[in-house]
């Protein structure tokens, strides 16, 4: 009987693994993740080509990409303008990076929610974003798609595409509709920030060329202080 039990368990594991692979790759979230991987691959190849053809420009592009990923779109846009990257290129790079951020995060969150793929190093981040999404869920449900678009568009703290796409998932929006609304709100927000920061950059740079870099530093400090305050307040609420 023990041997039969072990044999049965050995048969169940491959079957379960097969079902998980089908759920990961066959569902809409899996296809979304594959699109993100393909887009990331193309973007990486482009950066590699730039590194060979124009090393100095490549360093600027990598710097803007990293700044956007770590400190957000406002800091990334300000950095792009401070190094005179060009208005259109600054907007396009920010859109690509934000799109990748959303298309990678959303499937991973859903997989973790369904216990199909649990990444321990990201669990605390997912839990925190889930908590933030739950706290804003009622507003989005009241106003529907318009509320989700506005939530992603408006530059308030703890609003934005990452929390927004989780809210869309929690209220049961289809994947394609959720991504369409979230990406549309993201692109509109990027355009708004871009025109605002370009105007600020031109005014600041007319006084001192190095003042534009100071603007980037200020935005980075604001982001860091915001994260610190959010972490401190979150710890206080958990203790209470």
The ordered string of helix (H) and strand (E) elements is HHHHHHHHH
Number of strand segments: 0
Main sheet makeup: none
Estimate the helix proportion, in percent: over 70%
Distance between the termini: 52 Å
The DSSP helix count reads 9
Structural class: mainly alpha
| Structural shape | globular
Overall pLDDT, averaged? 80
Count of distinct structural domains: 1
- Sheet-strand content, in percent, reads under 5%
SSE blueprint and pairings:
Elements: H1 2-26, H2 28-53, H3 55-71, H4 73-82, H5 87-113, H6 120-153, H7 161-170, H8 175-207, H9 211-239
Helix pairs in contact: 1-2, 2-3, 2-5, 3-4, 3-5, 4-5, 4-8, 4-9, 5-7, 5-8, 6-7, 6-8, 7-8
Q: What does this entry look like structurally?
A:
The chain is mainly alpha-helical and 240 residues long. It has one domain (2-239). The protein has 9 helices and no strands. The chain has helices spanning 2-26, 28-53, 55-71, 73-82, 87-113, 120-153, 161-170, 175-207, 211-239. Residues 1-12 have low confidence and may be disordered.
């Amino acid at each position: 009987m023990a041997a039969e039990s072990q044999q049965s368990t050995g048969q169940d594991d491959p079957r379960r693994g097969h079902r998980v692979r089908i759920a990961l790759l066959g569902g809409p979230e899996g296809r979304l993740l594959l699109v993100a991987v393909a887009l990331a691959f193309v973007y990486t190849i482009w950066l590699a080509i730039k590194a060979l053809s124009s090393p100095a420009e490549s360093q600027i592009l990598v710097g803007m990409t990293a700044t956007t990923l770590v400190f957000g779109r406002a800091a990334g846009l300000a950095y792009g303008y401070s190094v005179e990257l060009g208005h259109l290129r600054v907007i396009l790079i920010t859109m690509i990076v934000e799109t990748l951020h959303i298309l990678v995060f959303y499937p991973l969150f859903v997989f973790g929610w369904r216990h199909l793929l649990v990444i321990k190093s990201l669990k605390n981040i997912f839990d925190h974003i889930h908590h933030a999404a739950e706290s804003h869920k009622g507003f989005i449900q009241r106003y529907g798609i318009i509320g989700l678009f506005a939530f992603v568009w408006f530059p308030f703290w703890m609003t934005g595409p990452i929390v927004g796409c989780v809210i869309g998932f929690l209220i049961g929006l289809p994947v394609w509709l959720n991504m369409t609304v979230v990406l549309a709100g993201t692109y509109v927000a990027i355009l708004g920030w871009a025109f605002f920061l370009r105007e600020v950059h031109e005014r600041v740079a007319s006084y001192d060329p190095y003042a534009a870099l100071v603007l980037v530093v200020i935005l980075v400090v604001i982001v860091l202080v915001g994260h610190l305050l959010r972490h401190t307040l979150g710890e206080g609420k958990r203790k209470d």
